[in-house]
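seq:
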Amino acid sequence: MKLNLDIKRKFQRFCLILICLIVLIFQSDIPNLNALPMDNYQGKMVIEELRLKVPAYAKAAWLNAEKEIWDPWLSSQDGFLGRQLFWDKEKEEALILVNWKSKKLWKSIPMSEVNIVQEKFEENVKTALNVNRNPFELIHEGELDKQG
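struct:
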């Protein structure tokens, strides 16, 4: 009787170990485990997303400064693929979508260089509107991953 009980326990342990091994082997099929680590994602296209408060009275100055200041600078950046500008009349908000060949190329641009271009942009706007401060408040900045 005791021999039967020992065999039954050993069989149960064997089955438990077998189930654990099967789970571990097939775990690689779980979609979350197949997701790209962020370091590997550095080579995929990414879209920079910026939202600004752009009052109606300043829309023309905003568009002009974008064209005169940001367009030439962006065009000279490695990895820049293009951008789109949108303006919501009701919210008086702008949406700027900047396409980059990869996150690595985008993030390799020194912030000190971006800040210099931003200062030129703000000076252009302040001069055009004859105001002392930049009227465009940054509401949101982020990134979107290209799907498909």
